[in-house]
User: Fold these one by one.
Assistant:
Number 1:
Amino acid sequence: MTIQSVLLPVFVLVLLTFILLFWMGRERVGALTRGELKPNAIALGQDAWPKRPAQLSRSFQNQFETPVLFYVLVALAIITKKDDFLFVVLEWLYVISRIVHAGIHTTNNRINLRFSAFAVGVGILIVMWVIFAVRILLS
């Protein structure tokens, strides 16, 4: 596989993270401007954000949980040359699951749907790691 085809899903996931970051920032600034919370509460580390900025903040934070395992795996697959067509397909499926998860989280936030998207992504990530480990151990 070309390096571009292997890294494109990574770039898309990074883009999602930045979109959530800037969206969250805009909502936080708006909440401060509207006086919906006191800056001292933030300075003291209190979780005082209104619902919408808090929801976006949590969605942004989610991009540093299981995706970290994805980023590490992609780097290892490139280094060890275990990045093939199946790997890229699984990458895209994982990234799509993360986009769906973030979409649910930032809109209706229906927990059952959000959990389903999360579970699908984790399942794909587990499959990716198992395939990678088997390939490494058997090579």
Note: The mean pLDDT is 94.
Number 2:
Amino acid sequence: MVQSLEILVEGGKATPGPPLGPALGPLGLNIGQVVKEINEKTKNYEGMQVPVKLTVDPKTKQYTITVGTPPVSALIKKELGIEKGSGSPKANKVGDLKLDQVKKIAKMKIQDSLSPNIKAMVMEVLGSCVSIGVTVEGMDPKELQAKISNGEINIED
């Protein structure tokens, strides 16, 4: 019977210690090899918590590693090089993204999203910008959302 293990690891820094090692030990896998593969697959998310799903067939010792993406807010903070969002996002802004950076984040998250296309995903990322106190191209993200909705700004798929 195939077993699944879902964990959060820091990008590129999984270790054979808890929670990974104790969960993998009874399955008879080479823990060092699994940790190395997880670190390789998550290295682009350094400094962020990344969801990882490990599916193992205990009989054959075959396994697959599926890496999710961090939350949109974590990707925004990484893009800006900040540790946390604003405590009062309406009054205090913590950074300013370029529209290209918003599109980059949207493309990273699209496969994990229910958004039907890149335009909808960009709107979702802009919504997260509002909640953590980030402007985009010097504007309130809500203004940008309105311009995208009415066709002033075109987001290509």
Note: The chain has a mean pLDDT of 89.
Number 3:
Amino acid sequence: MNAYARSADAYLSQRILGTSPEQQAALIMEAGQLHLGRAIQALNQDNLAAATRSYIRVSEVIQEATIRLNLEGGGELAHNLAKLYDWWTRETMAAARTRDTHRLAAVAHGMGEIRQAWEQFHKKKLETSEVPTFQLGNRVG
């Protein structure tokens, strides 16, 4: 992994700290897209070692997304996401065996759609929540 790739990973890790659960979910999807893009690039360059490293990272990203699902309280949405994440894992593994960049791109596209949904959910949540304001003279405590 080159210095740019390491700095991109560190940047994403820093962004995750201190964010809402929705933002974290979106950033996890962003990381998945990043590593799928790297896998596609590595395959196009016939660099199987780099592609394998990227597959491992994609697998870790999907696993992290799955772990964060609330299957007990999340209802049908959480269960559908679990099924989708499982499909992404199978698709990524199949694409790795066949070196199929189109399948990888399809998973990356799906991650992009889920990422956008999490970002929109976070934005809507912010718009509907009341933000307390502090004015000079207000008592604290």
Note: The two ends are 51 Å apart (CA to CA).
Number 4:
Amino acid sequence: MLKINQLNKEFESRVRLGIMSVLMVNDWVDFTGMKNLLEVSDGNLASHSTALEKAGYIEVKKEFVGKKPKTSYRVTQAGREAFTEHLNALEKLLGR
């Protein structure tokens, strides 16, 4: 039987779930694209992406395109594995 504490706390936020869901099916996604997809503020996306980066679940690439800064994200292998485990745990919790 699955216990609820077996779910990954890093993915409790809907924003983090959204970030991970988008990155599981896309290679690199830029900040503006992610912000628009999730309909969140700059600060909200920045704080949640920083937390996922610190956990080792996403990679953040900062570069300049012309003179404009560009931030992009992609899921790491550790992030892919952790998110898959989290989704599997949710399915077990739902009895699937």
Note: The chain has four helices and three strands.
